[in-house]
Structure prediction request, 255 residues.
Amino acid sequence: MDYPNDQAPGAPVRGGIPEHGRIPKYYAVKAQLDLLIGELGEGETLPTERDLALRYAVSRETVRQALRELLLEGRLRRQGRGTVVADPKLEQPLSLASYTEGVRRQGRRPGRTLIGLERFPCPPALAAEIGLECGAPVWHMERVLLADDERVGLESTYVPVARMPRLDVDFDPDSSFYSYVHERLGIDFGSADERIETVLATPREALLIGTPPALPMLLIHRVSYDTAGRATERVRTLYRGDRFSFTTRLGGDGY
Prediction:
């Protein structure tokens, strides 16, 4: 297989072009738009669909399809009636670090909007996951995640009331839950089980995050344990697929 001399290690092999060389028109336009995005820079406005169709000698529907893919990938975003070059995706580490730390490391301002904090008897499925007696009281806290006031995710956290009896009184919902657990309660996180999948948001979730229902989301399920091995939280976090990527470092154990 032939590789171009400028093949970037993270790019699709052969630029995604099949060996037979035949590619859809929209994909060729997408490649041209990708170059244009690099020239324009963040926040710059793209030409209109009509102008792009004339520039690349294709139909407006072909341009529209190329733009749709770039919007879904987070390379572009809508602004008013126009389309502009998007900021880089937020890189969130797959580690026992809080959302706050991950966003701050990239020079962005983290925030959260509380949707609800309620207390109810633990149902059987949740009790089995966090090792709690069925019917024991648990908190459920739901918050919209923000980065520089932009809505980027939705987080549901379940924790035993017995371990955090004053969560509704002592905790500021706009702050880091991990900092509260560590600094106010003296609980250290030791490990976590985590699962990631791609989903579409429900109508309610899309409304809360402010995205179209068809936008792909990254869903993370996490059960965190303290240093003694006791389950501390069960979290369901939905991240916008066009605004987030995840990073981790893998060790060499298990040869």
Q: What stands out?
A: Helices lie at 25-40, 49-56, 60-72, 99-104, 124-130, 167-170, 177-184, 203-209.
